[in-house]
Amino acid sequence: MILPIVAYGNPILRKVAHDIDEQYPDLKKLIEDMWETMYASNGVGLAAPQINKDIRLFVVDSAQIFANMDEKDKEEENYPDDPGIKQTFINAHIVEELGDDWVYNEGCLSIPKIREDIYRAEEVTLEYQDENFVKHTRTFIGITARIILHEYDHIDGKLFIDHISPLKRKLIKRKLDDIVKGNIKVDYKMSFAKK
């Protein structure tokens, strides 16, 4: 089932999410719905707060980026995480971030039609559980690490626009206000804050 994506302005996007256990109700169905919602919205990642759940759960599919990238782009740029991943992350916690910060133009399904250059670490090591609650500690690099860090921000109550300068924030304020008011059209289901 495709779920509505929570728009900027909803307080749940600013809440620090909590860990869950295997008893969380209908978790398997929720994860399936998150994948379906993410793909229907043309996303590469989706966190539970974006579908109005304050739990430490997100899904990432960086494999589709590499699958859709033309060979010329792959040859011109080094992508150390090619071919990417398709994975569910439960109760994720960052162990460490390493490498130089690098810039990439990011967007967010909860903040449609706004994109900004964001600096993030080259790699991240996470402790997390998969959909079967098997524990993992793993290091991710490149674009995959970036998507994970973006989704991780969501479960910590942060948004990608928190990484931009106050001046840039001021420049996009009107667009952000329009999102809060629901004065924006997108081609996927959205849930706007109450007016």
UniProtKB/TrEMBL annotation:
Its cofactor is Fe(2+). GO terms for biological process: translation. Transmembrane segments: none annotated. SUPFAM superfamilies: Peptide deformylase (SSF56420). NCBIfam families: pept_deformyl (TIGR00079), PRK00150.1-3 (NF001159). Belongs to the polypeptide deformylase family. PANTHER family: PEPTIDE DEFORMYLASE. HAMAP family: Pep_deformylase. This is Peptide deformylase. It comes from Paraflavisolibacter caeni. The gene is def.
